[in-house]
Amino acid sequence: MDYSSEVARHFAAPRHAGPLAAGPGMAVQGEGGSVEQGALVRFQLRVDAGRVVALAWQAWGCPHTIAACSLAAEMLDGRSRAELEAFDPLALRAPLSVPAGKTGRLLFIQDALRKCLAAWDNGGQRTPLQEE
Q: What is residue 128's predicted lDDT score, i.e. its pLDDT?
């Protein structure tokens, strides 16, 4: 399969990939998908004063999945809670040239971010997440 130059760029040098570094503030985490479904996505956010102050992600899946997580992280870094809530991962399809058959991978990102928002609403984790 041929991948777009944008997928190749994010796959070669993913932004914000890895576990969330320890630090002060409230940390939240959410996952979407599963290995059985062909992709698993985990987002971890550190939030303060209604904003994402740090984020990281881990994903297992195809280059489109990795690139989509990288681009989403790039777009969400420093955003407000409202902007995170309004984020539509399907908007990643065009810039990454994601084929229709892989659109579901983008929905895994949406699931992970919704779980992050739910954890944020529930007070998150007050102690920093430790590196895995």
A: 47
- What average pLDDT does the segment 11-35 reach? 92
In angstroms, the Cα distances linking 72 to 24, 28, 38, 95, 128 are 23, 16, 19, 11, 22
**What is the greatest pairwise CA distance in the chain?**
44
Q: Determine the topology of domain 5-121 in CATH.
A: Sufe protein. Chain: A (3.90.1010)
Q: What is the pLDDT of residues 37-91, one digit of tens each?
A: 999 999 999 999 999 999 999 999 999 999 999 999 999 999 999 999 999 999 9
Residue among 34, 39, 75 at smallest CA distance from 55: 75
Cα–Cα dist 49/64, whole Å: 32
Q: Could you tell me the strand order of the sheet in which 26-34 lies?
A: 26-34, 39-48, 51-60
Q: Is the pTM of this model over 0.85?
A: yes
Handedness of CA 78, 110, 34, 64 (dihedral sign): negative
Domain parsing of the chain, residue ranges: 5-121
